[in-house]
Amino acid sequence: MYSELVLQTDVDLLARLNQVGARIGRTPLRPVTGVFFNKNVRLFAKVEWQQFSGSVKARAAFHIIRAAILGGRLHRGKTLLDATSGNTGIAYSAIAKELGIPVALCLPENASTERKEILRSLGAEIIFTSRFEGTDGAQQVARELAAARPDRYFYADQYKNEHNWQAHYRHTAAEIWQALGPGQQNLHFVTGLGTTGTFVGTGRGLREYDPAIRLTALQPDSALHGLEGWKHLETALVPAIYDPNLADEFLEIDTAEAYEMIKAAKKHEGLLLSPSAAANLVGAIRVAEKLDAGTVVTVFPDNADKYGDILKRLF
User: Fold this and answer.
1) What is the pTM of this model?
2) E strands in 59-121
């Protein structure tokens, strides 16, 4: 009787997992023509907020959860635990709520008010960590909790989990390539480094389609920056999934320049971008301006819905 109940629960859980998976990915590739225009250079951005949970992090979160469930490491009797700056935590919480799995998140206490409210509304347990230590400090707290209570927690560890970058390798790269169509010449992919999963996975995937592609990694220009989710690798814990040999070029982005791009994108593109999306656009334009011809692709990880305090200062 017990084994039959467990089997039925697993069937129900897998069915729900498939339903959630159908709502993740397949986001549009949008041409950018208002803040940059060159008839010989095409600039596109993957609009990642147009999927379940509202950010690029839905991809990694889903594949981490899926692999853990299929591997028997996560189920309705265990709590998913991880450190987050916000978006991955929201993705975990939204997905896990659909599956009936509890979530505990180590979150720096200076995360935006909107992020905290969204996480609470999704039923996540929030464990606040030092605002001065960022996600590095949150990771340390999560590791300690996981070590102390392995019976209670499945530690997702997005900074080390191979399913993070593999989600982009298998899906994001393929979506971009299919949307661009055949006959690409002088292709560039540009995006920021946080967990580094988007850059590593998408970059590796696109390089298999086009070995000549140029990959540009972006990071903040200082350790003290306002680009939530981004890492200044020289002063932060480098994620284990990061591949230091992948990028052809590195560019540093100033937070103030990203904030100015938020205003420019609203005026000329009709989009309200998050700071990280605006920073990606700054970097992509910088690459595009150096080309005589070609195609540049970047990622808009999320929009400005969770950045009310910043928008109040800008508009």
Assistant:
1) 0.94
2) 79-83, 103-108
